[in-house]
Amino acid sequence: MPAQGNYIKRNNLLQISASELDAFHEFIESEYQFKLKWYNSASSERRLRKTIKNLQLNSLTDLQASLQKGSISFQRFLSEFTVNVTQVFREPGSLKALKTNVLPFYRKAKELDILLIGSSYGAELATLCIILKENGLLERSKIVASDICESVLKEAQRPVLQKTDFSEGQQNYLLAGGYRELDYYFLGAGSQAYLDESLLEKVEFKTFDVCHTQLEERFDLVICKNVLIYFQYDEQHHLINNLSRHMKDNAFLALGEKESILRLQKLNDTFSLVTREYNIYRKN
Hints:
By secondary structure, this protein is of the alpha/beta class. The protein is about 35% helix and about 20% strand.
């Protein structure tokens, strides 16, 4: 990080000093327990610039003042700051690996408890529910769909797919091992289609900050895809340790295809590698 008083280059119109950034980090953690300083610095600064612009403010100091006065809510800040990339049957190879390497262990289980991190607008949740349905596990599953942002999580309660996205979604669905038309699971006319609500009967929605939130439940499967990549290396240990506290013995952890915990050295619990290519692990 630049020395005190130096400026982090953002664009030709807006700059953030190191002292301004440090003050904002301290404020946001003190007031909201949000560990912004744990995020990858380059990604975080880029998203802060975007947030300031979208909120029509002039500086990070203005953003902090607006949060303090209540003219901008913390949830509004989160909705602007967080990355909400969502796509049905994203990373189909890893989904197929999940079906092959994890779900068979629960064929005869009375119940399967699942925590989905970063539900975003609901495409990942829709994907999970369809997979469980096709593998005969949905009726025996209890799913906690979570996100750090309340407004985003509210939208996830009714997953919607644009009709223009069905073509790519169908292709990924088949690559993941699907065997019918994807629109079988969606209802609606016009430009949008909504996931059949019967697939959501086993889902509970909860806000969850992967950095520190503690849930009462313990899970057989934790799905946390494309979250770890946004955090600094040292802080990734904290995230995985927190997730581990929510996992039963022998539970599975599924990460994104570009994420790995093999290089992390400060984990409280040991994980066995299930599949290296698709970053699926099992807690020992």
